[in-house]
Amino acid sequence: MGPGAAGAAGTGAAVAGRTTSADRLLAPFSAPLPASLPAPSEFERLATEANGGIPVRRFGMLSAGADRPALQDAPARVPPSYVLQVGDEISVTLWGSVDADWRVRIDRSGRAVLPRVGPVPLAGATAAELDSRVRARLDRVFRGFEASVAVTEVSPMRVYLTGFVERPGEVVVPGLTTIAQALALAQGPSAGGSWRRIRLVRDNRTESVFDLYGLLASGSKRDDRLLQPGDVLHIEAAGPQVALLGSVNRPAVFEFLPGDTVADLLRMAGGLSTVAARDRLQLERLDNRIGIGAVQLALPQDAGTPLSDGDVLRAVSLVDTALPALGRNKRVRVDGEVQRPGDYLLPPQATLADALAAAGGATAQAFLYGSELRRESVRQLQELNFERALQEAEAELARAAAARAGREDAAAGEAVARQLVNRMRARRPEGRMVLDITADATALPAVPLEDQDQLRVPGRSRSVGVYGSVYNVGSFVHDTSRRLGDYLQRAGGPTAAADYPGVFVVRANGSVLSARQAGRWTGTERFEAEPALPGDTVFVPELSDKTTWLQASKDWTQILYQFGLGIAGLRALR
Hints:
Structural class: alpha+beta
Radius of gyration: 42 Å
């Protein structure tokens, strides 16, 4: 076995714990490259800003901190176009009139010396020419034989990386390395380098211009050529660039070539995503940023629009925008005292009564007056208004604290008030709508439905609750002959600290009646004379210096029930 046979298992591999000559030759690639991506360019920062702060980098940029690709073994088959060089190993097997199995390397003179045959000049010949050259030399010595000749190991080679690359200069790469593999070992062009114009220079002449996008975007290796010793890979400066954002399969900053169009850009980005609008794109050009701004391109009519340096294009998503409710089926949930509780899909013009009918109607125990309709659009509006009310309450608290500065009870009053605000902030609006319905109703009103509405029909209520500043807080059996004042008396009546003129009742349908409602009540006498309805909850607020700031700024009924906080919220605040 000739010298170097131990390395035939793989180019540059360490054998049995020792360092081979190939390892030493490949040492220039052992030093680590920077562990992070280069800083984004000015145009990448512009694209990131247009993308809502989500980073947008150049297409092809390798991941930060990625491990360096390992030096791989030589391919199993040496291509016919491979040019033999000094250090390559060949195998020659003879049988017939002579038996031999030789492995020899090409020496510095460019020849492979075969035992009993002599030197054969091979350096510079292609792998396709190897067999004929060796046979011609064997025919001068032997007769009546068969031969098999192959390249069994290729040597590392020195090439040059120049231009926009992290470490320009002479480097050593494994044999049979292609342009793309050499760039991968170097972790691609640097921040200002081109991914589309990489010149292969051989013997001071440009052999080809390699476009990495062909490999990265479509997987084509058609132009990926094998390197030869002394080759120069020169990476040009980055060419014109555009950004493609939004609903595409590969949003990024792309480098384009002269003549490229919007259609070419979409192909590089892998096309529009599943949820993208396929009839339009938004285009903003640098020249128009101060002027008209973005314009709309119609697809496919404007797909042939030429690209311009600095363009920012955006594919519109069909799911990021609110859709019109008119003409759409409504998904609703109906539960409680109905025959068939569950989720239903109803026609666009369906009403609350239709939802109840879809669920098989109400049961005998249903209390339609207490039906709860919760709506997402209402909840969002309540959430906004509720937060604004709490902010105003906190501001009033700060003003009241400043006015009471120096008083002995100031700190205690402020602490109680802040505790109350914190309790209120823990409750969130439910999105309940108050239904215009009578206590003895046998049908629901024809309120138009919205998508994701939730209707709950409770069981018949037989109680009236009394809470707040009364002597006996609790719930009492409903009697149709009794008035609200009767239930207040059954609870022991208001305490000495009660703000009785501020008493109010919350009906089972979510509506509120207050003794202070202008134009309806002239005093507590009229409130007490109001008939009590099943499910009523009467609340008597407290009259105290600790809470006057809150009563002065926001009525209890506004804060608790205008925002759909419900009975549970009232009880929690107690």
